[in-house]
Every structure is written in structure tokens, then in C-alpha cells.
């Protein structure tokens, strides 16, 4: 008999990233992973390249330079920040630190798939609260959490729907939860949101000891390949995360690239401007083809397809892939009739719309 893992581990379905290849297509358009259409900051790329001269050295285990740069740009306290190998690692560290087998974890109906992985890795029970119009329903989350939820994960804005709830609603949620429940606000797409009623939750995390906010460098900063994220919260939470993370969990090139990226506000603005223009264009153009598109504040759109044979999401995915257009099926989220498409460069966006027009008209 072989060595057996802990009960429940083999029930976990590994996270499947967005596809990157289209069979038979030499140079496909990849719009499956919500990557920054503009790439990354040239200053970040230069810092990454310069770090090659020091690859024989261990990085600073506390990523001090990066934490101080984040604190300076975001108006935060460096000692209340911890960095990680993407925000995914930080979410998993929260599960490792705070969840016991049998604990209850709550998310919204179409919450990010990593929350399920975090719960299952710890042997916790995951409860999904129904959404309303593909948007987090705070009352449903409160009801699902009850008085015994250990963690409530809130993706705001949410992937894969692209919707968000206001700062007032986030605060209402936090006020209604027991103080024994940790609210984790996953604000991976925060920099794309320009609506006045939105907040990434940093001020709420500063005010309370039962809120932590996770952020990423993968989206607006275009550093998905560097695997870099950060979390902000009360010192009591950050101290716990420092205790359970690896001693050198952020590599040296990522630290250097992230430090340069967080300070390049011009690149961030250009990225957000590009997204604002093209996410609206995609929604208008795709909607004009007779397809429903969920309003999005992120760098992607969720496209809904009919159940008519030959016009389903699976049919569309296969057709687009055959044309070298790779977008993301979201059936694992419980959305079998939808596909998620990243905002790309101008020419890529036009190719996507042309491909969908051909599919719908064929």
C-alpha cells in the first residue's frame, strides 16, 4: 500500500490556467488569462533585467524594499504589509494559518476558484452564497456566514464576472459578521476601477483587526510572470502570515521589478485608460451581435451564449480557437453558458469581435 495523503487532498481538482495554445495556429491571440494588454512597465522590465547580475545572492527575506515602496505609493504602513508569490500564495497562507478541518469558509456564488482550493486544502467546508445579477449579494453572504464562518472571501471586483460592490456595502458586510470571522478582500483588479463608490478596502483594513486585503502585481502592473502579490492588514494578521510563509518566498527579480512597477504611475494610468476605452467598446460591439455581456469594471468581459445547438459557449470556444482566438471557458465556476475574454490590444479586440460575428452569423 502506498503512502496516502491527508483525507480530502485527492478530491482537489488542480487549478487550470487559461489556455495559451491553439492547435495548428503558430501565433494565436491569447485573451484567456486577464493579462495586461500593454505588457509591463519598461522601468519594471529594466529593473528585472538588471537584477540578473545578483542572481547568486539570496533575496531579502522580508522584501523590505518592496514593502516600503508599496507603503510609500499607497499611503500605508510598511510593517502592515507582507509580500508573496502572487496573491494566490497569500490566500493559501491565510487558509494554512486560520483554517482547521471542519471550519466554514464562505464565498459568493461565482467567487474565484482559488478560494475553493484554500478551503479543501485545509479540510474546511466551502459555502457559496447566491449572487444577484452576477454580483455579490451582501445579504446572502451574511446569511451564509451565520455566526460560525471562519473566513469570508470577497473578490471585489470579482473574477470571472467583472462586477463589484461599493465600499458602503463592504462595510455593511463587515459590520454584520462576527468579530471571530476574518473578512478577506481580494482586490486583484482594484486599479482598473474608477467608480467613486468603490474602495479596495485598505482603509477598512487599517481600521479593524478582522479584515485583510490582498493585491497583485499580475494585472495592472503586467507582472504575471514574476508571481508577485501583497497583503495589508492589522499587525496581528501580518505577523501570522510572516510566520507561515517561506523564508524567501519572493525572489530577487520580482522584488526589483515590483519596486519599479509600483512607482510607475504613468504606466498604470495608461493601462487603466486603455482598459476603460476597450472594455466599453467590447461590451457595445459584442452586445450588438445579440450576445449578453455582463457590465465589467475589470480588464475582461463575461459573454453569455444561448443554449441553442451550434451557438453554445462550447461551440463558440471551439470556433474561436480554430481561428487562433483563445478566450476562457468558465464552466468550472458554474457558468457553462459563458466565456470570459480579456481586453487585449486594439487589433486583438477587433479580431475577437470579428470572430464572434462570424460565429454568430455562420
Automatic annotation (TrEMBL):
EC nos: 2.6.1.9
Start and end residues of each Aminotransferase class I/classII large domain: 27-355
Reaction(s) catalysed (UniProt annotation): L-histidinol phosphate + 2-oxoglutarate = 3-(imidazol-4-yl)-2-oxopropyl phosphate + L-glutamate
Residues modified to N6-(pyridoxal phosphate)lysine: 219
Cofactor(s), by name: pyridoxal 5'-phosphate
SUPFAM superfamilies: PLP-dependent transferases
Pathway of action: Amino-acid biosynthesis; L-histidine biosynthesis; L-histidine from 5-phospho-alpha-D-ribose 1-diphosphate: step 7/9
InterPro entries reported for this sequence: Aminotransferase_I/II_large, HisP_aminotrans, HistidinolP_aminotransfase, PyrdxlP-dep_Trfase, PyrdxlP-dep_Trfase_major, PyrdxlP-dep_Trfase_small
Family of the protein in this entry: Belongs to the class-II pyridoxal-phosphate-dependent aminotransferase family. Histidinol-phosphate aminotransferase subfamily.
Protein name: Histidinol-phosphate aminotransferase
Protein source organism: Maricaulis virginensis
Lineage: Bacteria, Pseudomonadati, Pseudomonadota, Alphaproteobacteria, Maricaulales
Amino acid at each position: 500500500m502506498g503512502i496516502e495523503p491527508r483525507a480530502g487532498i485527492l478530491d482537489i481538482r488542480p487549478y487550470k490556467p487559461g489556455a495559451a495554445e491553439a492547435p495548428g495556429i503558430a501565433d494565436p491571440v491569447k485573451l484567456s488569462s486577464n493579462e495586461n494588454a500593454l505588457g509591463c512597465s519598461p522601468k519594471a522590465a529594466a529593473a528585472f533585467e538588471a537584477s540578473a547580475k545578483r542572481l547568486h545572492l539570496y533575496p531579502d527575506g522580508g522584501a523590505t524594499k518592496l514593502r516600503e515602496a508599496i507603503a510609500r505609493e499607497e499611503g500605508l504602513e510598511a510593517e502592515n504589509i507582507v509580500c508573496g508569490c502572487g496573491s494566490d500564495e497569500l490566500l493559501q497562507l491565510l487558509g494554512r494559518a486560520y483554517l482547521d478541518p471542519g471550519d466554514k469558509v464562505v464565498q459568493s456564488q461565482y467567487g474565484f476558484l482559488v478560494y475553493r482550493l484554500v478551503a479543501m486544502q485545509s479540510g474546511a467546508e466551502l459555502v457559496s452564497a447566491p449572487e444577484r445579477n452576477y454580483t455579490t449579494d451582501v445579504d446572502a453572504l451574511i446569511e451564509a456566514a451565520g455566526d460560525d464562518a471562519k473566513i469570508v472571501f470577497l473578490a471585489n471586483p470579482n473574477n470571472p464576472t467583472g462586477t463589484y460592490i461599493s465600499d458602503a456595502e463592504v462595510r455593511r458586510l463587515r459590520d454584520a459578521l462576527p468579530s471571530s470571522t476574518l473578512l478577506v478582500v481580494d482586490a486583484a483588479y482594484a486599479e482598473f476601477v474608477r467608480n467613486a463608490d468603490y474602495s479596495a478596502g485598505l482603509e477598512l483594513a487599517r481600521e479593524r483587526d478582522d479584515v485583510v486585503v490582498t493585491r497583485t502585481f499580475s494585472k495592472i502592473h503586467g507582472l504575471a510572470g514574476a508571481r508577485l502579490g501583497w497583503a495589508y492588514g492589522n499587525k496581528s494578521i501580518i505577523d501570522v502570515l510572516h510566520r507561515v510563509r517561506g523564508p524567501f518566498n519572493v525572489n530577487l527579480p520580482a522584488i526589483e521589478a515590483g519596486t519599479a512597477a509600483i512607482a510607475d504611475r504613468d504606466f498604470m494610468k495608461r493601462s487603466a485608460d486603455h482598459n476603460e476605452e476597450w472594455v466599453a467598446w467590447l461590451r457595445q460591439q459584442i452586445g450588438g451581435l445579440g450576445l449578453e455581456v455582463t457590465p465589467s469594471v475589470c480588464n475582461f468581459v463575461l459573454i453569455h451564449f444561448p443554449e441553442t445547438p451550434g451557438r453554445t459557449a462550447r461551440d463558440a470556444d471551439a470556433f474561436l480557437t480554430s481561428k487562433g482566438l483563445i478566450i476562457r471557458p468558465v464552466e468550472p465556476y458554474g457558468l457553462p453558458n459563458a466565456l470570459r475574454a480579456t481586453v487585449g490590444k486594439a487589433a486583438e479586440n477587433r479580431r475577437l469581435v470579428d470572430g464572434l460575428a462570424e460565429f454568430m452569423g455562420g
